[in-house]
Amino acid sequence: xxxxxxxxxxxxxxxxxxxxxxxxxxxxxxxxxxxxxxxxxxxxxxxxxxxxxxxxxxxxxxxxxxxxxxxxxxxxxxxxxxxxxxxxxxxxxxxxxxxxxxxxxxxxxxxxxxxxxxxxxxxxxxxxxxxxxxxxxxxxxxxxxxxxxxxxxxxxxxxxxxxxxxxxxxxxxxxxxxxxxxxxxxxxxxxxxxxxxxxxxxxxxxxxxxxxxxxxxxxxxxxxxxxxxxxxxxxxxxxxxxxxxxxxxxxxx
Length: 253
Hints:
Elements: H1 2-14, E1 31-37, H2 39-43, H3 45-48, E2 61-67, E3 77-83, H4 95-101, E4 104-109, H5 117-134, E5 137-147, H6 150-160, E6 167-171, H7 186-189, E7 193-198, H8 202-217, E8 223-227, H9 239-252
Parallel strand pairs: 3-4, 3-5, 5-6, 6-7, 7-8
Antiparallel strand pairs: 1-2, 2-4
């Protein structure tokens, strides 16, 4: 019931598409940096007040962002937002060369402790609005990678913003599922890709397989199950498995 109410409240106010704005060139450099801003700066004061019950318009938001070394405006980059349950903003080992190879801008929420699902979701959406102001992005390749408790926020984001986020990697975690109340955005959700990654633990594998089945039963068929038998629960994907997961997402839509 809690998330049903949250969905109705947020969908009525947050259901915006990515704005088309003039890009501010040279405000972000290639490579990895930490950015600090506010919701008022990203959306403008008037728009930011619509969400003040979730996030103070003037509260500092921090993201760690990695721009591919070979970024080229003529070949817009995809974007991957990594949602984690703890403040761990470093790119996982072995990922940077693959982010360059796959032409992906990487964003991690540089947060202090756990966030409520609605706040984490809003900050995730704001990160895409922010990055689009500075770089040309491929809006067909805006992805989320989530693990552990952040799967709740990630699955809410995929449910409320299927027009923005086109794919997700659920790693060793169970997203929100639906029983009788199928989301009103299910039609758009069916167009997007969903990768379910299990670790070596048998119980986690069963959880991930069950989650994929529930998505399929709801009519979402663009899914893939990826087993990572050398990974422990809660750990980041190896470079090999990360590459495989991104390739699966790119093929699904």
